[in-house]
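mind reviewing these tokens:
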Amino acid sequence: MTQAVGEAGGRQRVLVVGYGVAGVGIAADARSHGHEVVGFLDDVKRAPEVLGSLGDVNRVVREHHIDSVYFAIPTVDAKVLRDFLSGLEKTGLRLSILPRTYKTISSESVSVRDLTDVDVLQLVGRQPIKHDLLDAQRMVVGKRALVTGAAGSIGSRLVEHLLTLGVVQVIAVDWWETGLFHLENRLADDRLRVVIADVKNESRIERIFTEHRPELAFHAAAYKHVPLMEDNPMEAVVNNAFGAENVLRQAITTGASHAVYVSTDKAVRPANVMGSSKRLGELLLSDLAQQSGDTKLTAVRFGNVLQSNGSVMETFRRQIEAGGPLTVTHRDVTRFFMTIDEAAQLIIQSALLGSNGDICVLDMGEPVRILDLAESLVRATAPHVRIDVTELRPGEKLYEELTYNPELATSTANSKVFILQVEDEMSVPVARIRALIAKIRSGNYSDDETIAALRDMGFNVKERASA
């Protein structure tokens, strides 16, 4: 972790990047802690204290024997920040970055805990996408909404957004009672009703829908950890495929106007059990959409959600706080990234966009190399931490895709959201999917048989050693 300004090995010679309000404030703070602020860098403003532009940093560091650099431009363009970080030459130079969301100037240098998902997006070179939710608000206001997986990081943020948009009630469904307890206490909203239930329990889900009659249903519950699902394929299929069908079917039966299934980029050409199970869920949604009557069914795919439970960013955060090392499973592994707010807003938007049975995807820019993310985090928050490149985990792919065929993507009223019409690739007859689910639920099926069935359906999942 970076040290506090007043603890950085005695008096420091400091260079501040940014001659705005934040830069001047952080300079005053540094001086109050006994450090010498040598000057500033700024690409726009000129003054005697401004020693050059951002591109002059290495020259200024050398000429003025700088010990610490404080980057204090909270609204900086992502590319500018990345170029600045990658261009620094001097090793051992202390670097602190003022996050975009930093509210006050304090005596603390920025640690990995200070970086929000918006700040991390900046490090990897993408600005967060802000959605115009006015139309979504008109759809949501005064309605009853149900969210499964509501105790999770994405589900809980979705609940918050729905309450902010003006729903009359949110039924928050999850099997994780501790998470629901904390959600209820944190939000403290009379419109929130928490319900403990397992999406695989048909009678329980039927009772919940019958009692509450939600007009909007958002199915975010899923098992998502790839290596765990490799070892638990039966649970993955029943939870991620049957659980989705169970919720969507009840939404249709009770007359919901919209129901959204949260999928994943791992459902595209899946190389693991988790992605295969989510693709089965997409196919079941497509079949249900043909008989859904007045209920509009849509799915939404997105990539790695920064700071969601179990994300690579959260793993890196824990590793940095423990002193390292950061572990990257391959030098060339890449992922798409988005913020939790982007994910929650896209889920709501997808209820409006497209037609019954369509899949929505977000334009998340170019995929990010995980090694680049790790190096940026280390440089910004913990220069002493090393990075170890290990090996791909079971079921892990080098890269992910958002569509089987990009030419199938059509634009929408939102320039950053695209609609995929029905995709024929990796298509499995729903009768086979339901037969597999029935066998697993009968209790007379095994994990090995489940893997064999997925492979027979055409999914590129790894054969179990005992099979």
In short: Residues 151 and 179 are 5 Å apart (CA to CA). The radius of gyration is 25 Å. The longest strand covers residues 36-41. The first helix runs from residue 21 to 32.
